């Protein structure tokens, strides 16, 4: 085989190898980026998951300057009080006073509350301030209150699940904080107040995370944020006092979690009611791993572009 022929064959082999490495690395990067999203389970079903606020007894948004990401629904009471843009602004959704979505969402809310209630009581926790809690189920036979900071540490599980069973009422003091760390887009946080429980009240300047699923009312003070979660009631109202921020447009490590709506799937056994099955452990991708894979892909692209350029002919081959 002539020298030029050997060079052509070698170039073709290098291009094929580069293409193989390129697509292998790209596939691996895609899997790392998408795995948590793909594993998020439908504890909150198709209609419910679109809502940031659902009020069984209506929705009242008072004061000024509240920001809602996601839809607002009211059913069976269809009253939604509040004027855009004075009382609130909304993005990524619509205001639905009654209608099919809100009606169907109420049925889905009932299923979710029942399934989460059937998961078991777990560990007893009444006062949450100053605690760091790993994924699991926590319950209080009476009031569950938060003063200070509660840290929910996923321990590197992108599918971490926290369920809080509230016996009579959920209360947060002013300036309390719920902080979710070390998890990813498959995580879920649920605060459950079923029939027989009281109401949820979030004190002014509280920073909250997760979904409140309540039979009775949810009331917020001023300047409350739940930027990655929902306020959902079955029979009573949801009330915001002003400059509150509620929504499903999560950011940071919770980007893509759709309001912390993952963590498990609902199954219905042959006998008994629906139950929640936690999702399997999924490691949170290390940022360095993603960066290295991205850099590797960039190098392979550059290599392919360079090899694709016309090569100067060997002077010895002329003539």
Give an overview of the whole structure:
This protein has a nine-stranded parallel β-sheet with strand order 7-4-1-21-18-16-13-10-8, covered by helices on one side. A seven-stranded parallel β-sheet has the order 5-2-22-19-17-14-11, with no helix packed on it. A four-stranded parallel β-sheet has the order 6-3-23-20, with no helix packed on it. The chain is built from three helices and 25 strands. β24 (264-267) and β25 form a beta hairpin. It folds into two domains: 3-39 and 285-317; 48-278, no CATH class. The chain is globular, with a radius of gyration of 26 Å. With 319 residues, it is an alpha/beta fold. It has helices at residues 3-39, 99-117, 287-308, and strands spanning 51-55, 59-61, 66-69, 71-74, 80-81, 88-91, 95-97, 123-124, 132-133, 136-140, 143-146, 149-153, 161-166, 169-172, 177-181, 188-193, 200-202, 210-214, 218-220, 225-226, 229-233, 238-240, 245-247, 264-267, 275-278.
Keywords:
single chain; 319 residues; alpha/beta; 2 domains; 9-stranded parallel β-sheet; 7-stranded parallel β-sheet; 25 strands; globular
| Total number of beta strands | 25
Taking strands numbered 1, 2, ... along the chain, how are they ordered across the largest sheet? 7-4-1-21-18-16-13-10-8
Q: How does the overall form come out from the CA principal axes? A: globular
Share in β-strands: 25-35%
Spatial gap, N to C terminus: 19 Å
* Biggest sheet overview: 9 strands, parallel
SS field, number of helical segments: 3
Roughly what percent helix? Answer: 10-25%
Oligomer state of the chains in this structure: single chain
Order of H and E elements: HEEEEEEEHEEEEEEEEEEEEEEEEEEH
Structural class: alpha/beta
Mean pLDDT: 86
Low-confidence stretches: 20-41, 288-302
Domains, number = 2
What is the radius of gyration computed over CA atoms, rounded to a whole number of angstroms? 26 Å
């Amino acid at each position: 085989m002539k020298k030029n022929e050997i060079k052509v064959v070698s170039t073709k082999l290098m291009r094929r190898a580069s293409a193989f490495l390129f697509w292998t690395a790209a596939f691996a990067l895609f899997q790392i980026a998408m795995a948590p999203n793909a594993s998020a389970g439908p504890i909150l079903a198709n209609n419910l998951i679109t809502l940031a606020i659902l009020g069984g007894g209506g929705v009242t948004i008072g004061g000024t300057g509240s920001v809602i990401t996601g839809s607002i629904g009211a059913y069976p009471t269809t009253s939604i009080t509040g004027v855009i843009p004075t009382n609130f602004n909304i993005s990524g959704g619509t205001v639905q006073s009654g209608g099919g979505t809100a009606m169907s969402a109420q049925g889905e809310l009932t299923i979710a509350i029942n399934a989460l209630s059937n998961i078991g009581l777990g560990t007893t926790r009444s006062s949450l301030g100053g605690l760091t809690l790993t994924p699991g189920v926590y319950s209080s036979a009476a009031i569950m209150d938060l003063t200070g900071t509660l840290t929910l540490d996923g321990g590197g599980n992108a599918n971490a699940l926290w369920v809080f069973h509230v016996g009579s009422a959920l209360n947060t003091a002013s300036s309390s904080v719920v902080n979710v760390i070390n998890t990813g887009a498959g995580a879920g946080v649920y605060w459950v107040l079923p029939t027989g429980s009281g109401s949820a009240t979030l004190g002014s300047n509280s920073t909250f995370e997760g979904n409140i699923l309540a039979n009775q009312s949810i009331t917020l003070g001023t300047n409350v944020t739940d930027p990655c979660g929902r306020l959902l009631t079955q029979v009573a109202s949801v009330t915001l006092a002003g400059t509150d921020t509620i929504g499903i447009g999560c950011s940071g490590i919770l980007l893509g979690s759709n309001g912390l709506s993952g963590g498990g799937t609902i199954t219905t056994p042959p006998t008994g009611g629906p139950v929640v099955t936690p999702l399997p452990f999924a490691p949170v991708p290390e940022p360095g791993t993603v960066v290295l894979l991205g850099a590797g892909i960039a190098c392979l692209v550059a290599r392919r572009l360079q090899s694709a350029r016309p090569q100067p002919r060997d002077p010895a081959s002329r003539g």
